[in-house]
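Supplementary Methods, section 5.1.

A reviewer requested that the exact input to the structure prediction be made available. We therefore reproduce it here, unchanged from the version used in the analyses.
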Amino acid sequence: MDFDLDFDAADDERDPDDDTELSADERRARSFPRFGPGKRIGRKFADTWWGNAWIESMERTALDQEQLRKGRRYAFAGQVGSITVSPGRISAAVHDGDQYTPHDTIVRVGTLAAAEWDRLLDRVAAKAGHIAALLDRDMPHDLAQTADDAGVRLLPGYGDLEPECDCPSWDHPCRHAAALAYQAAWLLDRDPFVLLLMRGRGEAELTEDLRRRNARRSVAAVAAADQAGTPAEEAYAAPPVALPAPPGPVTGEPLALAPLLAGHEAAGIDAEALGALAADAAHRARDLLAGVAPTGASMPGATGEVPLAPEADAWCDAVRLAARLPRSPAVKRLGEASGRAAELPRAVRAWEYAGAAGVDVVDAVFSPPRELVAQATAALREAGGGDGAPPEVRNWRNRWTVGRDAQVRYGRDGRWYPFRRRSGQWWPAGPPGPDPVDALPDLPQG
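The structure derived from this sequence is encoded token-by-token as follows.
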């Protein structure tokens, strides 16, 4: 369902320049045109997670599910008039199908105290991504988590919504308040600033407040840098200083943390796992300082050093950790946490040969260009012929099976990776090569 809403168009007929008789909350109020009747597509009422969180807050306190069902029908049928949102409340006229008997309906929402706004906006201003998301009419989960960390409940919880209606029903909520709350979720879907307005602050003042806080942070950062820095005249006059030599390899694993943490397991600290992570952090810090990442340096025929690149995803990072610390008890937990414990040994072997690219080839299935497929198939057949019959070469997507137990795969990086069949599974069998024949030198005979 696609609603064409003009969020800046208010239904208020009062002169916009004449606000002498308006309270601060009234000046913040925004009015939205009514939703016309339409059909809902999809299983959920709202489209966003925060829109559905609003609905759940209302539905959990409902005393009569029949009133909710009627409220949904009213919302879909367009029986809710224009909605006005202001700090602490939303309101609209809702009718029962008879256009001449509307009911004045309100849903009240608790507003945030000034101290809560200060804590929340300080946290939001500290993360540019939060501001960008709000301006893009999005509310990522971590923004709500940031509010929770600041001790501020941004989304309404159990009992936070208080419906009021002038109809004779004693239900909580009545069908009119339910219809209003359901349609409010559609407003929230398209503009999370509507929720912030309900909580007490309008978009214009919020963005201005965030701008001021960012400016103060920038000034403070410059001042701190000036205090900690060296005057330009001194810096230019100082003699050159030789840079330190690149850091040497990190040896051992700093599991000395384990004794220090003994007895703290009850607090949720796993000493062994923390020690393993500290060891990995030390290794990665060295790699970052050196600007390279060793890839399979201990394996025969390894490719040496390649430019440092981040891991593609959590699975690849789990494989990297398992390969880095093969004797750590944390490896078993890595497999269990990833949900792919049975696949971890093969992935570790692939990492040892070729790093993240090798792990990707284990699962990657794609179609290379037709010319490359034809050339690789011909080269493998010709190289495997010798004095006897050439081996059977079967191609499927980016994989070539040669004979019964050998396979070479084309990676997304343009290299060729050898595999061998072991116990019914294909295992990485060596470092990648520039072409399929070099990658799989001991081709089986036919």
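The mean pLDDT is 76. These observations are discussed further in the main text.
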